């Protein structure tokens, strides 16, 4: 999939990534830090993390196609290099969501000794916060470099896309 309604798929799909990464990161952090929120948010957060796992490679593939159409540019190359990190970032965010969900289930089933619940939740919360903050920072860096590539360099002004 390279075009959607005549527009490059990447420029449309990237908006979902820009919204979902911070949303999943917020869900992971709230679920890790706040037990009341965990009950309501852990499963929707995990589902959205899976959506990200599927959508991110599709978006990066569409971006690679678009990069080929645009040709050589240092700004586009910077954006592409940063964008190649996003599947790994999203995998880490998914692992954080999965870890929070696993701890939630283990606590609910009383599989973690009461004396260790606090230490386990603190460790998971620290890991979740670090991954979530890193994911949000990286999606910002990728998006910012992409917007600079488009608007400062005028990359799309010379783009002639195929009609199919």
How does this structure look, described?
The structure is a single chain. The protein has 164 residues and is mainly α. The chain has helices at residues 9-33, 35-70, 74-83, 86-108, 114-151, and strands spanning 3-4, 7-8.
Topology (elements, then pairings):
Elements: E1 3-4, E2 7-8, H1 9-33, H2 35-70, H3 74-83, H4 86-108, H5 114-151
Antiparallel strand pairs: 1-2
How far apart are the termini?
10 Å
Quickly give the structural class. mainly alpha
Number of helices: 5
- Total domain count: 1
Q: Into which percent range does the helicity of residues fall?
A: over 70%
Element order: H for helix, E for strand: EEHHHHH
Strand residues, percent: under 5%
Gyration radius, rounded: 19 Å
Return the average pLDDT rounded to an integer.
91
Which descriptor suits the 3D outline?
Answer: elongated
Please name the defining characteristics of this protein.
164 residues; mainly alpha; two-stranded antiparallel ribbon
Please provide a brief summary of the model.
The protein has 164 residues and is mainly alpha-helical.
């Amino acid at each position: 999939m390279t075009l959607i309604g005549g527009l490059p798929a990447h420029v449309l799909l990237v908006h979902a990534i820009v919204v979902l990464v911070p949303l999943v990161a917020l869900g992971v952090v709230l679920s890790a830090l706040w037990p009341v929120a965990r009950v309501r948010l852990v499963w929707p957060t995990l589902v959205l993390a899976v959506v990200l796992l599927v959508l991110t490679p599709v978006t990066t593939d569409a971006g690679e196609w678009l990069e080929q159409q645009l040709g050589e540019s240092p700004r586009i190359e910077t954006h592409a290099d940063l964008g190649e990190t996003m599947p790994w970032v999203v995998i880490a965010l998914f692992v954080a969501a999965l870890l929070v969900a696993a701890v939630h289930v283990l606590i609910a089933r009383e599989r973690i000794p009461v004396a260790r619940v606090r230490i386990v939740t603190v460790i998971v919360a620290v890991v979740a916060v670090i991954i979530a903050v890193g994911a949000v920072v990286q999606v910002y860096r990728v998006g910012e470099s992409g917007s600079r590539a488009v608007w400062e360099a005028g990359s799309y002004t010379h783009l002639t896309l195929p009609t199919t």
